[in-house]
Amino acid sequence: MSMYAVNSGIPKTLIKSIINWIAEQSTDKENKKIIQDILDTPISPELLPPDKEGNIKQKTEERIGPYVLHDFFLYHFLRYGAEPQKIYILACKTFEKEFEKEKIKYWLEIFIKRFFTQQFKRNCMPDGPKVGSISLSPRGDLKMPSDANYELWKF
To answer: Is the separation of the CB atoms in 67 and 43 below 8 Å?
Structure first.
């Protein structure tokens, strides 16, 4: 944590999309190469050092699921207050060509559990901007106790 949580209101998939757009707009080949290297690096909040061969040890999406699904779940959960069953149906339709239904359900269950059990981290995070229509800031949109029980949201 630092003094300001700059990405508290910006989904990871949007950040990646913006970086990709910047790469496409760049006419400098060296800049494009650097930006592409950034895009090719898996997103990981842990920042663990690479192994001896230089490979990233932790690939967060392998553990918690694709960020494109997480951002989708988060949007429908916070923006519309959708219950897991509805989010699941919407995700199955939206991502029918990318993910199997069983995988969507698996990642949604992980999302719900993590969303509730990790609230304590959001409660102590520094202030951040609200860029879109939802925000995870506990001083803004999200008012949720740290001990909220995810069992009530299982499906």
So the answer is: yes
